[in-house]
Amino acid sequence: MRKNLLMVIPNLGLGGAQRAFHDHSVELSKYYNITEAVFDLDLENLYPSGNPVKSLQVGGGGGPVQKVRNFFRRVSQLKLLKKRLRTDICISHLEGADYVNLLSKGKEKIILLIQGSKTHDRNISGFTGWLRKDVLMPMLYKRADRIVCVSRDIIPEMVNDYGVDARKLSAINNSFEVESVWERAQEALPAAMQAVYDSAPILVTSGRLAIQKNQAPLLDIFAELQKVQPAKLVFIGDGELRSELTQYARALGLRVYEAWTDAELTPEYDVYFVGLQHNPFQYIRPATAFVFPSAWEGFPLALGEAMTCGVPVVSTDCPTGPREMLAPESVTPTQPIRTAEWAEYGVLMPMLTDATTRTTDQQVWVDTLRNLLQDKGRCRQLGQAARQRSNDFTHENTFRRWQKLIDEVLAE
């Protein structure tokens, strides 16, 4: 008899966690009866899986008292839903869902999926950040039957910073639709965009325009690179920092194209903000290199998909994920790297978050990108290696491990 698996996430909006949630729902439905649960349905389901979706019908917002009230209503509603569905195991995605999952625990088993670094997440700050890091996570996370981290380097955080028993922890990387991404990457660019790509070497980056992705220093680097190497920089994605980034680019003297304006798309610009794209891979595959300046990650989908597209990748050695993806046999350094590391499957670079070393670190980026753009042979070799490495992240490989873990937990 198939077991009943309930998956919980705060919302079904746009984001890497929601995409991973969709993949889990689709792939695990091959082995279990899957039901998805969300706190409310205020956002559109952009990644429908075809499995049933249940809303707890408890929104967010309001003052502190209302937020506390909503939190405990969610706990109560999820507890009722678990009973009604006769849930055997409940897997939560994202921290807010973790707390509700743990506090609503009955007879069912509980697995938490940690999608990113908690210790290095700069969005966890202030009083709320203290409450999360010093109270809620240390107190509640140890109650889970298992905790799955998307990167091996999150495991030490869970043990050392939050007191989780190492025996409850395991690492299962995110997976990518490798064949589908490669197929979609073959789609030709629109003619106007192809003219841009034909005009100069192209650096492309993909991701939410947000503090985590740390795109502002990339603009500094690109402005310096242009002084010694012709190139274009393409941003795929949108987010809360859109206006700040476009204004900063212009302040650096860069000519900026914005897809959300009426400007004509021509090769005359330096930086192209093309917004959200239904098929970002057609923009990534023909690029000269993919650049990834994140301040912290989990196991980044955007980086993995760029590797799948067969383009050379240049990424910060940020916590966590890029090193595991590009240099899997290497040991995570105890101190941030200060030079370029030409790894087996891509280039690991200094982070761009330390004000005391930023000028030197940015110059390392400029020199490395110039060398890469001028070396077609190395670009080709790194692109082929990245594509080969991406085959390790197929759904088949990943969810074989998930099925084994779930069955082990159910048998306990």
Automatic annotation (TrEMBL):
One Pfam entry name: Glycos_transf_1
Keywords assigned: Transferase
Record domain Glycosyl transferase family: where: 197-329
SUPFAM superfamilies: UDP-Glycosyltransferase/glycogen phosphorylase (SSF53756)
Gene Ontology molecular function: any one: glycosyltransferase activity
Domain Glycosyltransferase subfamily 4-like N-terminal residues, every copy: 67-177
Matches recorded under InterPro entries: Glyco_trans_1 (IPR001296), Glyco_trans_4-like_N (IPR028098)
This protein's record includes keyword Metal-binding: no
Positions of transmembrane segments: none
PANTHER family referenced in this protein's UniProt entry, alphabetically: GLYCOSYLTRANSFERASE
Protein name per Swiss-Prot or TrEMBL: Glycosyltransferase
Organism: Hymenobacter fodinae
